């Protein structure tokens, strides 16, 4: 984890995005946490480009690790399983790609170093220490009772409490050490990819200022992370002596970063927030934010004119065409929306999210031939994005329109399954099986859903 999060708040829904929920299992299923996640093709593609070279030099490029965007506006990131979770607030607040790349390098270091596994071992050790301390305290208390010594009993209670506190401090100290190790490994990854560590220093400086402004007074021995100033002191010399310290992000990458920030600003706080980020009203990031804000305000005609100007300046940007499709759907022009999404898919053929958007637009036309094509596009998109819940909803609607009731029931089962509603998923899967050919791949998948169990059980 980068740093304990501050000042949480919810983010709005993004274009062709939605919020889903992941269950994160900690040391035991009883401590599972649920995390709201935002899906967006443009942002996910950008962050994937940020992390790819880092994963390669860390030896994790073939490990199936993915980056997930968390629906939270605080500046934070953490790892769980094979996923790196990055708060949307970190993306919005970062002024350059290098700042986020530094964050990702730190989290990759946790994965490469096996810190999650060792942390679980330390948790078990701390738990054992606490139990032993409690038992020693109980034993001393019993002895005190047997001798009639009240002071002995009080000392026993203190012994138990002190043992528990010692176990907790030991665990926190271990975590702080792992954070320092991850920081140093991150600098090494940045050097190997010929990138600057300046962004890491800027991130820790921002965190220090946030703590100062919040008036938070923290005992450095009572937290799981080193204090920001300590982290800067540990890293500054190492970062500054790198031959890549003055290296700047490529202009094209900075442009994509600005567009991402413009999108997030428009969806989370409106045009005023975008104007605070982009001082130049003619900047492309500000223009993008303005087009999206106009669309969100319910003015599709003006929004269409604004996005068309952006497309004229970057005709091969798939996400401008995606946004155009969104606007046209809102303007009740599904045929034109389908064409826009089709162009987006041509420009970014590997994006499952864009394919689902294309299928949604085709479905909205109401034309039977287009709906058949929608089934194909939605199915292909969901092959790449198996957990994209909304896609199954559209797929169920498309199958239903075509009279494929068994397939529609199975798609509804998938939607419930990936939403974590296992009970309803089993009901739909059982209904699907009565209409599917026994032993077919679809029938077998329905059986898998029927046999599924919630995570952690």
UniProtKB/TrEMBL annotation:
Protein name (Swiss-Prot/TrEMBL): Peptidase
A biological process from GO: proteolysis involved in protein catabolic process
Signal peptide (residue range): 1-32
Cofactor(s) annotated in UniProt: Zn(2+)
PANTHER family linked: METALLOENDOPEPTIDASE OMA1, METALLOENDOPEPTIDASE OMA1, MITOCHONDRIAL
GO molecular function ontology, one term from the record: metal ion binding
SUPFAM superfamilies: TPR-like
Peptidase M48 domain: residues covered: 49-238
Pfam family, one: Peptidase_M48
GO cellular component, one term: membrane
Alphabetical keyword list: Hydrolase, Metal-binding, Metalloprotease, Protease, Signal, Zinc
